[in-house]
Amino acid sequence: MDKEAALQQVAAITQALEEVTKGLKQYATVIQESGGKSDLESIGQVSQSHTDLVSGVRTLNRASRGPVDMVFAQIEAVAYTGAVRALLEMGIFEKLPLDGTGLSADVLANELRVERDLLVRLMRVAVPELFAEPEPQIYSHTPYSMVYLHPGVRGAFKLMLGEYAPVFNKLSEFFKDSGWKSPQSETNNPYTFTHQTKGLTMWEHVKLDPDYFKIWNAAMNAQGIATSFAISIFPFKTELSKMETTEETVLVVDVGGGLGHATKQVKALCEDVKGRIILQDRPEVLEDITEELPEIEKMGHDFFTPNPVKGALIYYIRRCLHDWNDENCVLILKNIACSMTRSSRLLIAEIVLPATKADVEGAWMDLTMMTFTGKERTEQQWGDLLKDAGLRLEKTYGMPGTHYGVVEAYLT
Ligand SMILES: C[S@@+](CC[C@H](N)C(=O)[O-])C[C@H]1O[C@@H](n2cnc3c(N)ncnc32)[C@H](O)[C@@H]1O
């Protein structure tokens, strides 16, 4: 790099650093004022200022590394994730003591029955981000490695890498073969192409191996729990309290509610409002529920068929529609709409992408969904789907700092 270019880089780094310093001050102020509070506005402010800070750090990282090094950063990231996955399978994470004391490469290799040299080479890639190496080839846990011991986090990591990293690698091959357009077929999409599913959909394919399916479910559940803060974006209690209800009134039907994690929270948010709460999903999913769900009725239902509950006040559908293409979403929505009355409303709890400047999570989630024909949607796209299903979008509820939102709709 010549001197002029280097000076320009220094100027860019200086500017990015100033932004990070500003962002950090802002974050610290917000934490002082709103940290630890559980109201949505405070959670939103903390989340927004943290997102801004991380975005500033990304810009600083980019400015410091420069354009060429940023190309190689991608290879670095691929090698890193590959090494972490291999170390997970090797068993290092379980072997290292949880109190932070270290173990030598010799001991680890011996106890895990692996080649010492291979272990050292993998750890060389993983250590700077993940483990500590207080002395040469003595390794210990840090909070960044311990987090992989959480089954949900580990499941999500393994799922994303095992299932989707190969698919992302094959995206260009798939599109070159089948045309540059969003895939619409359940049995011919980047996922089925990469995994050679032989006519099975992704949903059928992941069930082939029961052990793998367990990891899959743990990961899905973990993601649901991670986004559970967003359930209260819709003011359930305030809205339902405005209605005259009896013990017989169906307050909420949670369509495609899975194991009922969100349903339980909805129930808590509707405390003191008289009425019923119903959890619907496919019968085989409901059979897997092991925990007690007090005062929640379970009902087997395929959401591609008309909803058997007529005239509920709220039909709630969370994190389901993003799995499906527009055509299937309209079918699902029509099968809810046909059971709604004028006093029913539909709530879609999903990511609502902004028209521009989506956050990193929204963007990668959308691309992941795309690999099997699903989609994250903007408010405009939600509105179009609703219209096609005979519904009208009334309002979109959101909160700063996240794209998770709730789209409210009524019969047209
Ligand atoms: C990502 S999970 C969301 C679960 C839950 N709503 C939540 O937010 O945690 C998608 C759910 O859609 C359900 N689902 C898929 N196909 C379905 C169908 N044909 N009828 C009913 N539910 C279905 C799945 O069983 C799963 O529970």
From TrEMBL:
GO molecular function: O-methyltransferase activity
One Pfam family this sequence matches: Dimerisation
Domain of life per record: Eukaryota
Organism of provenance: Phialocephala subalpina
UniProt-listed SUPFAM superfamilies: S-adenosyl-L-methionine-dependent methyltransferases, Winged helix' DNA-binding domain
UniProt keywords, alphabetically: Methyltransferase, S-adenosyl-L-methionine, Transferase
Keyword Cell membrane: no
Identification of the protein by name: Related to O-methyltransferase B
InterPro entries: COMT-like (IPR016461), COMT_C (IPR001077), COMT_dimerisation (IPR012967), SAM-dependent_MTases_sf (IPR029063), WH-like_DNA-bd_sf (IPR036388), WH_DNA-bd_sf (IPR036390)
Lineage, top ranks: Eukaryota, Fungi, Dikarya, Ascomycota, Pezizomycotina
Domain O-methyltransferase dimerisation per the UniProt entry, residue ranges: 80-149
Biological process per Gene Ontology, one example term: methylation
